Fold these 3 entries.
Entry 1:
Amino acid sequence: LILSNSFLESIVQETFRIKPPVPFINRKVINRKFLFGTKELSIDDELGVCILLLNQQADVWSRPFDFMADRFLERKFSPFEFAPFGGGARKCIGSELATMELKMLIGLCLSCLNLDLIEESSPSLKVMQITVGPKKPIYVTFKKKN
């Protein structure tokens, strides 16, 4: 199995879209009040952005609950459509490292190992400070490819 870097990147991006590492972020108004839609926000007001819902908008994502890595090969999404690590000046400083690590892990596993899930059900998630992770370990069996 040979994966191109762009297809591997699209697999990682689609994974982050469906299971964002940080599903919700807060921001505080600090400089001046402003209009957000029809709501006026004042200094010290807080605004929450649900990245999980951002990544499921039906007007942006066709079949938003399906894993379709090809969508990231077909177009580039704006930070207002896809922001798995937040955005702007407060974007996660480790986002590029996390993306590279996941690409390396997936590429290594797919090229060297045959993996099988022991439990077929989708894992339940828990909040771990600001990130999310599985409530319990995900067990797999693996065998080295010949």
Note: Residues 60 and 78 are 10 Å apart (CA to CA).
Entry 2:
Amino acid sequence: MQIRKSGINRRIKEAAKAEFVNKGYQKASMRTIAEKSGVSVSNIYNYFQHKDEILKEILQPTLAIIDWAMELIEFGELHKDEHAWSLEYHLDQIPAISKFIDNNRESLTLLFFRSHGSSYENYKDELIDRYTGIIARNYKVYRAIRPQMNANVSDFFYHNLSSLYMNIMCEVLMHDVSYEDMLIYLKEMMMFAYGGGKALMKW
């Protein structure tokens, strides 16, 4: 029986991640990954069935955090405490958001810009759709708390708001914005979005 060694697994993933980020998933070469990891191509297949499985394992820690965050937004404090709808609450989240982006730059870049041809090539659009649904449901919850809120907001608005947030993250990644500058930029965007939402919803 072939014994899988954690050190070899790690070397394969590190080499593959560099290759994926540099060339994109579709153009990444298994032969190059083998050369950079010091593992033969045939031996790589003892650890991973195919290239997409390597990508999946590389992205899993980052995807797990995103899934956790989506569940927290949908089922967390927004449903328990009206303070969670305040500007102060949202501004308090900025350091954690900035740290997540800063700590996951390569994986997020790979996920959003270098995953064409993989099972994740539509992930960004799927995440926008998922967040659109969460926003719409959360505003419905908040309208129950504040009946005077404007209820005539289109689903397309929620979609565009979700796309805006995704674009902000992509711009930060594309322009390699530092953690310190992210704190400033995301605060500016949060205040802008919150002020516009407050006016639209008639809070």
Note: The CA atoms of residues 128 and 166 lie 7 Å apart.
Entry 3:
Amino acid sequence: MTPKYFDIHSHLHFPAFSEDIGEVMKRTLDSGTWVVNVGTSKKTSEEAIALAHKYNEGVYATVGLHPIHTDKSHHDESESSGDLIETEFDYEFYKKIALDPKVVAIGECGLDFYHLGEDSKKKQIENFEKHIDLSLDVGKPLMLHIRDAYVEALEILNTKYKIQDTNKPRGNVHFFAGDLEIAKKFLDLGFTLSFTGVITYPKSKKYGASDYEEIIKMIPLDMIMAETDAPYVAPVPHRGERNESLYVINVIKKIAEIKKLPFEEVASVLVKNSLRVFGI
């Protein structure tokens, strides 16, 4: 079966959905929407895999350590009620679970320099490089989380890893919020970019890029994917509510509107992109 829509970055395994996850998943799959639930720690990575295995198709997982969990930082209770801090990336642990057939990517990983000191930045860089090594090791793409650190992330990908011509890093930049110049640099490396419900909001620098429309207009459609980042940033008309994968339809509608293309065409291409990138 081929899905109608694909939410390539969600967290339906978080406690925010613990009371009604069965209903949420039924709504999602009944709508023809497939989903990748993204790990952010050992605990949430294992939970993403467990949820994926409850369904024969349409539900997948990623495994990785979110950059903010390499040090003390604010953690949303909707992610986990437990301690998610892992100062060092446990390579062998993540490699073992990354080999699960339901795992389609490594991450979310990357750099998040929002309100961090230099020591934390160094630790994040070391852990990011280990994720890249793991991605190359197991042959699965990266799911990147980059905040206030696009230049630094590109530097790592361009210097340490670009020389590996036969085995370059590949993957997707989740919740892209850079400018057009940064977008082009990731595209040049072969990375796709995914967008959330934030593109349905009025223009605001709060979420990074000040003009998503300019960026989406310029990016080739075959290099774009749609996501929700549920339970966060629900798109209009659900803004302020708990987000869920079903609402990825609203993100796709906005991309189609910006591109001035039929919704069905855009939805179909984004699904093909998702299947291609994640090898499904």
Note: The beta strands are 5-10, 33-38, 59-63, 103-112, 142-147, 171-174, 192-195, 224-226.
